[in-house]
Every structure is written in structure tokens, then in C-alpha cells.
TrEMBL record:
Residues the UniProt record annotates as site (Transition state stabilizer): Y497
PANTHER family according to UniProt: AMINOPEPTIDASE, PROTEASE M1 ZINC METALLOPROTEASE
Keyword list, A-Z: Aminopeptidase, Hydrolase, Metal-binding, Metalloprotease, Protease, Zinc
Protein name: Aminopeptidase
Amino acid sequence: MQFKSSLGAWLGGALLGILFAIPVALAIVFGILYGQASSDLEQCRQPVTSTQSTLSTSSVPSGNSGPSTAAYTSEGPAINFTLRLPASIAPIHYELTLQVFLPFDQTEESLPNTFRTVGTVEITLKPTEDDVDRITLHARTQAPSGSGKISFSPSQVQLRMGWSQLPVDRVEFQPESDVVVIFPRDRLYNGTEYILTIRDYEGVIASDTEGLYRSSSERNGRRNWLAVAKFQPHKARRMLPCFDEPSFRSSFSVTVKHNSRFTTVRSNGAGGIGRPIGDGWTETRFSTTPSMPVYLLTILVSTFGQRTVNYQQMRNSTISILGVEDMLLKHGNVTFSLQQSEKALEWMDDRFQQPYFNFMSKLDQAALPDFPAGATEDWGLVLYREANLLYEPGVTSADNKRAIAGVIAHELSHMVFGNLLTCKWWSDTWMNEGFARFLQYEILHDTNRQWGLNALVPYLSTQVAMQLDAYDTAHALYNPNVETIPQIENMFGTLSYAKGGSILRMMKGVMGSAFYGALRRYVARFRFQNVEHDDLLTVLSEEPISVGFPATNKHIDFNSHMKTWIVSNGYPVITLRRVGPGPRDITFEQKRFLLRAGNSSAHAGVDKTRTWHIPLVLSYGSSGIDSVGAPGWDYGYGADKLCWITKATGRLLSECPGEWGSYVSWPPLPPSDNSSTNFIIANPGQTGMYRVNYDRENWRRIALYLNAGPDGHRMMYEVTRGQLIDDAFNLARTGDFDISYEVVFDLMRYLPYEMQYGPFATAMDNMRYLDQMLRSTVNYGNLTEYMRNLFDLKYPEFGPINSTRWSSSVWSDDQNGYEQGSYTTLQFNNVVLDNACYYEQAECLNDATSKFKQWKLANRSLSLPYEYSTENAAYVTNFPQTRNMILCYGIRASENATEDWMFLNSMHDRETTPAARASILRALACSKEGSLLQRLLQKTLDGTVREQDSNSIFFYMTRWHLGEQLSWNFLRQNWGRLTRRSSIVADVTASFNTRQQLEEVREFRTSLGPDVAEIPAFEKAIDKILANIEWMDESVDDVVSQLKIQYKNFPIA
């Protein structure tokens, strides 16, 4: 079936049918779900799913009898059904023309051929081997209803060399692996260019936010449609036949034919000026892109508004932000996002000497109502979820503002690491994503120094990576066995981002100022190429590093030192014990860190003897010494101040060079002298991704130092305070080291005096694990008593309800563009408020419920800007910074629980900003009423929240014990109706710690069959449940004993 190319015919041809189907049309006009419409439209055409079909060959050029569709037998060439494409053919250039049949609004949804495409692609190819007998490429020709796919017959496939047509014998469709194999009659010559054409293939504009998909916005009760393509990592095959692997780089020339009412049509290349072609259609052509992988290709068909600035005042170099016009207006004409974009691009251009506008003439960034990821780095047209790009002064919270700037920095760092250089295969995904995570913090630190983010990098990234990598089910940064689609998706988990960024941060710490010089050479050497991690390590090893006084140059063999960090999962813990008075009179022992690794059956057969090359740096502490545990510069230390620990056990005296330790004045450290306060701290500033354990005496002295009065802890670098708490908590949690929870709680006695976000949040995050383990037991009261005692001391610092911390703290721009208030202070306040109310500290709950009542009485949208009431200057009618706490605990402690919940639920549909809607969903999950929580869970299915937001409901729900139980039951009952289920499995089972729960998870996994894509998620969940069970068996008594003792030991402020 061919679609009509005339828009008038497309619109008019359906008119008669519509007249005879008025009830159906009215149903669509008045809001039929687009998923239902898609299901009906799906029946318009049956895809080509069988290689046995008899297909027309009428369009085959003269002289070609037409390619056969017969399946191969033993007499024919063997077909390889692997998901990887052979490297015998290299694409060079794509010419793509795509006609998009997209309804303009909801009144056109019932037209024939709606949400369809017709495309023609010409791919210039070059064999890389002699006598190539086939062309193998990707095309998704079979898919569930509503999902993207394409279809074509063998008669639509043509091959030529120059102007000469070449006969094609066979076309084989392999829908189970998304592959099409084309067999030319004659073999292809190495180095000769050929052009493969697939004409008038048909496609689907999907409803599942993958590939080329549909999205919409609403204005004045009318749904307005748009279409956008998101391909990373393997979904380009849903829109066009292509070589859908990152190693196949090509240039692209794109033409889009579309309804002329869609005024904002974009792709990667510049241009985008439409040419009317008649009957209400417009043809929009775009300039040719640089050479890039097909996953970076995208198109956008919309009526978006646009805001543009000239980059560094260059006339032909523009940065634009596209989005729903009402949203651009509401969000201050996206001034903040444009400023952050220009800052990030300037930083990247200056640091790597590869100016973006040397390769592209424009940078568009689109804010999309529906987007399955946070953002995607498509070259020239970067795609974002609205909440990750749009900032509104007075409405967006401090944390969301920081996150927006971070996502922009992350995506624009991909313009080099990911686009200009691309990982060769997804086994090295971290080469793209780890670099972007590392650089986003580098960019934010250098371009927004007043935010104070540098001290938070270990908390935001390194500690996250170590938590994820503490199980044997974690994947290595480099996994040579990545082949299947679930394996590819798994490589895009948080671990690749956080651990990859942390390893790069560690290498920067080792190299000091030489690090960026090496990266510049790396980029210059491999630009427009695909890379593997060995390429990076080789370049870093070549870089001379200046050490010592006078300076001499040396090289570090990163291929040797860093290999285990990259090719193996896990990370080490090093235990240091003092055996003498000098800086090297210390023994060491390294081993793999695994949570509950002792006797757990979950770790049977795990290699616990693996060793890493650990870049060890020591810091000295003693009473009266300031800045203890601070790194030597910025957050690195340089190659002359570290010792590489390569063995499992040994003594620093024999392992470290003679001059090592001479940079610090080391007084004696007698192991058994309890009168001494001297101590050592390794890995200052948590620059290395490893944990550190000490002998008991050293731990005791660190605790004494931290607890030496109200100001004692301030003498120690704040990152190191958080690092010590995190290490101690996790070492005790394993049960595999000579450290008890007594050490942990001794370290935390000073917390009533802690005023820095990073270390305090680290302590609360680790206490949350104890909360998860104990909340369903009779011992939970001991934990709540301990925490309430802490916040009885901590919360009064905040003063009465009208204090600035509760009501008027915002982090918005003043009229001169400067932030008001400190980001880290506001975040610290939030951690205190959230935890104080969570543990039902009386004053906190009273203040929260009072604020909630005031807001409810005002009946004011959260999407309206922050402002003062005219009646009382101290009373704020909107509170972007503290609204999560006020709404959550206002609901949780409400005297009219059902009425307030229903009011808040109705407000959800009124809000216009994603952040405000997210705050309400989070608050609805705070209810203590099971029936209300069940209603909230139904929102994941009934279309009242966007698909991209529905999974967050499970995350919010499982914060509470009742919500966890209800979510688990709901997941099992509605498995087939939910999407992105791997994250739901992780969230719902995170607190499971009983053998009954373990058996339930195992039984449910088995019931789904052996081929379900979420098997890796279940394996990780089961590993964590086993660890939790072992913790309950072996550590709960120690924790409860300490809670009973330590809750009385906080200092009285």
C-alpha cells in the first residue's frame, strides 16, 4: 500500500468515512487516548514478517529479474543471526527523505495513514574486504502495536555502482534480530563505492517514546501533536534501514516532507527553511552533517517556539532553545538555560581546542513534553525532557536549577566525548557517558564557582558508584560480552556514568595539571574516529608529568595501573595498620569490597583475591592541625605524592619510593599510646574510588578529633568528613572487617554541630539503610528515638516557623542575575527538614502542617512564581525550595487525610510545570492511607501522568513501608501493562530483607520465563536481598545495641 502524497487528498479522502462515523470522530475529538487510536491505525497495514511472502517486483529496474525472498537452505550461504553486523561493509553517507503523516491536532487523529511515514534512503557504501557477497544492515520490521517499525519488499531494494544498476538476487529479512541481508548477484570490490537505495519504505510514528515517536502538548483544551526521533543506543533501525552500531560513522543529508502548519522542523544539519511543494505540504532540507554514528541522527516536526543567542557574538553561530511557546514564555524566555549552554560550550572549546562551530553551524536544544531519557546528545539538535532544560526563577528549586545546569553541561560535553569521538561498541559505553559525567562537574565548578559544587562531587558521584559496584552482579566498565539489546541497555545504567566519571577523576588526581594536556592530544588524535579504552590509556601513559623539586618529567603506565579498574567489576578496600613511628611504618592489605561478602551464598565462587593498583595518598592529622584530609590542590594530588599499591599485602616501607612521605612532617604515631591524638587519613578528598579501613586505635583518634567541641570537626576538610562516615558505615555493613557499629556511631556524635551539606547528607543516606532494614521490625522504635534525639538538638537551630530556612529561602536570580542564597546551605536545610519531619520531630511536623494549611487556603498553583503575601511580608504563598517537605508532611500528618489528599490530587492536573507536578506526585505517596496509595498507583496506568513520570511513583511510594508492600503487589498484578520495569524492580525490592520476600521475588521471576528482558534487574535485586538477609542475621543486634547507647551521647548544643 502506498500513502497518498497529497495533503489535500490525505485530509479529504477520509471525509466521507468520517461522516458515517461521527460517534467515533467525536470520541477522538473529545480526548480518546492516543494509544487507542494508535492501536486502530496499526491495522492499516500488515508488516513484512516472512521471507516466504510473494511480493511485487514491478518497480525493479530493467535487466533485473527481481530479488528472491526465499529462505536460505543448506544449499545457500549460511546466515549469521548474530545481533552484530559484519565489518565487511562501511557506510559513508546517507541521503534520507522522509514524509511524515502527523495529525496537527486531535481533530485529525482519525484520518487514514495517520502516524505513518514514507521514506527513501540512499546509502553510499564501501566494502572493506575483498569479494564481499552480502550487505547486512538493520531494519526493525516486526514490533508490537504502537512501537516503531518499518517495512519494505525486496522489489524496493536497488543497488548501483555509479549510474550502473546491479542486480540483487535475494533479500532476507531476519525480524528476530532486526536484520536485513541483501545478496547482490556479483561480489563487491574492496574500496569501491556503491549506492544502496530502499525506496518508499513505510514506517510508524510510535506511541512508546522510542525511535521516531509522537508527543503532544495541550493548549486551551486542544492536543497539539509533534514528532521527534530518539535513537540512542539502537533504535535508528525503527525509522530507517541503517547500520545501527556506533562504529559505523557516516554523514547524513536529511529532507523532511511535512504538513505546512508545522512551522518548526529541525534535524541535525543547518538550514531548516521549508519549501512549499503544494497541497499543504512543505519540504524542509538540512545541510549535511559531519561524520557520526546513526544513533546521533534526529528529526523534530513541531510548532515549537524558539529563543536564540549568537555564540560569542558570531553572526553565523547560534545557540537556540526550542519548546512549547507557552513554556518558553513561562520560563523566563529560557535565559538561564541559554547562558549555561554558552558557558559550557565556551569551556569545552577552550579546554580541548576543538571548537564546536568548526563542525556545526548551529546548536539547537529542544525541550520535549515526553522524553524517555533525561536528555540525548544528538549532534546539532540536543533533546531534553522539559524538566531538564527549563528553569523558571521563583518556581524552580535550587536542586532542580543545579540539575538543569548539570544536564546541559553533560550533554554539551558529549559534543566531543561521544560525537567527535565515539566508543567503538557499547562494551565501552563509559568512554562516552563516564567522560560526560566527569566533565559536567568540571564545567559547573569552573563556570559557576559561587555554587560550591566541587566539594559535593564525591557525594554526588563517587559514593553513588561505590554503592552500585559493591555487588558481584555489577558490570565492569568494559564488558566484552555485550551483544544483546538487554545487555546494551544495561551498559547505560548509572554505574557506567558514576564509576566512569569517578575513575577519570582519580586519573586526574594522579596526573595533576598534565591530565588535560593529555586529553587534548587524545581528542586531536582520534577525532571523527571510534575509540576503545586502550586508546585513552595509551595517550595518558605518553604524557610527561612534572614531579619533584627541581622538576623532572616521568611517565605513568596507565595501561598497567588502570586496567583492573576498567575490565573488572568491583573496587578495593585497603586496610592500614600502624606498626612503627614513621610515615612508611604501616602495613597494608587490600581486598575486594563486597557488601555482605563473608559467608553469603550470593557470593559463592566470587574472586575475593583480585588486586588493584591503588594510588595511595596519606594525610596526617593531630589536635590543632587545620585542613586535615584536604587534597594538595583543587581535588587532586599529583604523581609525586602518591604510592602505587599493587600487592595484596605488604608494608609501605618496602612498597613506596624513598622520597615518599617526605612531603609531610610525620611525628611518631605510637600504636598503643591512648594519650596521643595523632592519626592518619588515606585518600584525602576521596579522590580515589576505593574505601579505607584503619586499625581500631586510628579510628578512635579520628572520632576524638571530630568530637572535640562545637568546632573540632571544622578543622577537617568537609569531603573527608563525609568520606570517613561513608567508609565506616559500609565497612561495618559488610561484616567482613574488624570494624563495628560502635566506630560508626562514635564518628557521628558530632553531627549536631555539622553544618555542611555533603557530610550530613552522607550520614543521613547511610542511616536510611538502617531505616529500611528495621522499619518492619520491633526494633524500629530504637532507631526513631535516636533520630528524634538528634533532631531535637538540630531542628531548633532553624528557629520559628517564619524563619528564612522554612519559608523564604529561594535560589533564584535577582535583577542583576546573581543567585540569592547559597546552594549548599539550602540543600543542607532541606536534608535537616526532610529527616526531622520523616522521624516525626514534633516542631518540624507542626511547622510543615501549618505551612500546608496556609498554602491550601491560598489555593495557589505551585507553578506560579514565588512572592510575598501583601498581608504578611514573612508569609510566602509559594515555596519552591521547601515545597517537597511541606506538601509531603502536610499530607502525612494531616487531620483530614482524605480531603487534603484529594485536594492535592486535583492540583496535579492544574500545574503547568514538570517540577511542580513531580512535587505533588511525591507528596501523594506520603499518605498513610492504603486506599489512597492504591489510587496513586492506578495513575501509572490510567494516563493521568505521562509515561516518563509514572515510574517515579514507585520510587516515591517505596520510601514508606506500606507503599513498598502495595507497590510490590501492584507490580506483580500489572506486570504486562507497565513499562521500564527494570527500575521498578530495583525500587520496589530495595528494602526486602526476609526469606519470604526472597522466595516471592524468585517465584515471580521464574513465572515470567527465561527470556524476559528484566532478568538482570531481578538478579541484582536477589543479590541485594541476600545481602540484606545476611545483614539482618549478623548485624542487627550490634546496631540496636548501639542505638540504645548512643542516642544519649549527642553533645548538648
